[in-house]
Amino acid sequence: MASTAALAVLLLLVGVAAAADMSIVSYDREHGVRGLDRSEEEVRRLYDAWMAEHGRVHNALGERERRFEVFRDNLRFIDAHNADADAGVHGFRLGLNRFADLTNEEFRATYLGTRSRGSAARPVRAASDRYRLRDGEELPASVDWREKGAVAPVKDQGNCGSCWAFSTIAAVEGINQIVTGDLITLSEQELVECDSAYNQGCNGGLMDYAFEFITQNGGIDTETDYPYKARDGKCDKHRRNAKVVSIDGHEDVPQNDEQALMKAVASQPVSVAIEAGGREFQLYKSGVFTGRCGTELDHGVAAVGYGTDNGTDYWIVRNSWSSDWGEDGYIRMERNINASTGKCGIAMEPSYPTKKGQNPPKPGPSPPSPAEAPAICDEYYSCPSGTTCCCVYEYGSYCFAWGCCPLEGATCCDDHYSCCPSDYPVCNTDAGTCQMSKSNPLGVKAIPRFPAKPRWAIVSDNEDKIKG
Predict the structure, then answer these.
(1) Distance between CA 10 and CA 116 in Å, rounded?
(2) In this prediction, what percent of the chain has a pLDDT beyond 90?
(3) Which residues form the signal peptide (predicted)?
(4) Looking at the domain covering 110-354, what would its CATH class be?
């Protein structure tokens, strides 16, 4: 279990115009059930408006049409579902959100990234009885920590399987506000880059380990000073030592006990793991989610309240897919179902940070990070630190001219002009794009290189930075 190979196997994959209302474009009441029989012209109009709203650009040959067919298929699924919702079959609706041009397989491969305690590299803390419901104990009928000022605005994990970090930080931000009265937005990137003993950044992690990291580290920095990048990187040791908010430890809610989870959420925001890979979850827009899902935990979120809507009990769950998804970034998930695991496994592995005292003294300004060594291209030329050397003109086995890609660990494309980031490492030089893999055409525009400098010039630049 502790071996690198076993751990890798056990890690879950990564963490415009006046068209119809794009918030629920999927089922425009103006058309009634006719949404199930949309014309080609109408679907293309919706697609063009959706692309404009979400800034989608497809340059690869045939990629626009391929994405359009995926969009059309998702739209059919949305329309059929929402027609059932209007008929009273269920109470939640789907919509054309940011994931509407992704197949469910692509969605799951890109945006999920937590793992369960069953796949943990080492044992984690046992459950506590702190929130086990006692006989005769009564709980509030509803709780919403957003109204109490303990929940920061919804964030966006991007194309990085770091949901575990966002779940952890939401719970820490919450307990810190409850204890100190201050809502301080904290750094997920510090966890992604520095919490590497058992968690693996954009490749997945476990909230219990992240709580333990913050405890052992003596605290965590703010998001402002250690901002999110949506990619792995090197731990900034100076920022890691800026311990703005601390916790005393963490505990687990008793497993498979929604009453215990309810008591915990009545006391503070709680980190929970759920199965979020279903198509209904991918395209969720509003209402109490009663859709299909299992208990293969693959996504970390935060339970920040609960309530009841028209006789259906629900959890208020804060996600990390931006405010464009769901109910302004939230989902209400059915509560008190006929299964001990809870909806989508929400009651299987809840955990929370503990905190009693105030935070450490406010840290002073961090010293400037020492200048990192440049990227050496050859004995004459170098690129700045944090970039990649790429050959511009090659003859035989010798490079006569160098360029610099403004990213570390980048792929140098064969056109001798562009490069691709490490998370989109496949160059499509015909289209000028970078893809996640040959089988996954999701891509971004290729990045142009800039000329390398003689090595003496790079050294001079670094010396100027140290003096400044």
Answers:
(1) 9
(2) 61
(3) 1-19
(4) alpha beta
